[in-house]
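Handout, section B. The chain below has 487 residues.
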Amino acid sequence: MDLFQDFSRQQTRRGLLGTSAQGLGTAALASLLNPMTPGRAAATEPTRGQSDLPHFTPRAKRVVYLLQNGAPSHVDLFDYKPMLKEWHGKQIPDEIAGGKRFSTMTGGQTLRPVLSEITRFAQHGESGAWVSDFMPATAGIADDLCFIKSMYTESVNHAPAITFFLTGSEMPGRPSLGAWLTYGLGDSSRNLPSFVAMTSRDKEASCGQIFYDFYWGSGFLPSKYQGVKFRGSGEPVLYLANPAGMSRERRRGILDDLARMNELQYAATGDPEITTRIAQYEMAYKMQMSVPELTDFSNEPAHVLERYGPDVHRQGSYAYNCLMARRLLEQDVRFVQLMHAGWDQHRNLNTQLKIQCEDTDAPSAALVRDLKERGLLDDTLVIWGGEFGRTPFLQGKIEETETWGRDHHPYTFSIWMCGGGIKPGISHGASDDFGFSAVENKVHVHDFQATILHLLGIDHERFTYRFQGRRFRLTDIYGQVVKDILR
């Protein structure tokens, strides 16, 4: 038998490419393997992203996204509308709401009485920002914030709307924002993932929203760019501790042996997921040392812990996650994504909105203050906001005050941003007199995404990834940088 001819007959195109990559693969893997050997010393160094990035000097190095799942009510928190008091209980004009699409909760509701804000508004700081009395800590940092009051989106349901904000598409399968940034800009921390996600929810479990893994997924990018989710109970990451009888030195040896076997497999197949596996093993090894230190709050000053509120000691709470976010950012983690569910007040606005604000207001403001005091706010972009707003009209009946609520509202809503190149102490854009539609300096989701990328030194139109014959980008084929809010 002619072994060469037999090998040639069995060799596929993929196999040929895989074996041809052996030289390159070995060189690439050398930087991912055992940092104890000279050829693998680069494993302890953060890896670079794409060679052409950043496109220009970035204003921000890190991002923390405080995503409020369920959609906070803009007309009760940040978008003060005296007209709502005048029209309280009256049918909202057809020229304002007629023909608009809402969720099935109010899709068939013929009576849509205007509902006045259930909070009290006041102006705060030198900027005179309007903030509700449910958000006293946020009001205290108003001069550091940029309120965008003219956001608008396309979806009227939670999961598609959140997916749209995070991936640029309402359908799952695209890379999330953190994955795009990790792919483009590379690793930034030596001993922690560059993209970390944490979730929390209201203690009352007032809504049934689910945190889907694709909210921090890598989509069609290699899986090494997906976010690492820190758990809300027990070990932040599964299997962080070695089993009984397993020393750190022995673990190191096992990982080295696994890496060599994976290196051989990569040489045979050229599958990039193998390099991901090796890199993840190495990161897990580093996190066995870095994460326990990260979660130890014993060295935090008492006054700092007090800022975040009593829940700061409860693992999995929003307050705990906000302090964890600050500690992650201090370690140069590039993208921290906090998601807090419970803002979906369809039938419990009079009770649950205040609870949500009490749980999230102080920790959000404490995070901003902490970053500012540590000199990190100037190059850390902080984002607070939901996936859409809430209707200025009532869901339900005006006389049934105990079950007052507001439906999903994509036509205008408010978010705030600060740090990382954002102008402080301003309000951008405006909605109409009812807080129903954005009418001035409108900001679409793709504009929001383009602006985030711009602050990190990325031209969103040039930042693409080729998949299935098409070059994809976070902003699809849309988006304009909101230059008026930049320093």
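Note. The chain has one domain: 60-241+298-485. Compare this with the example in section A.
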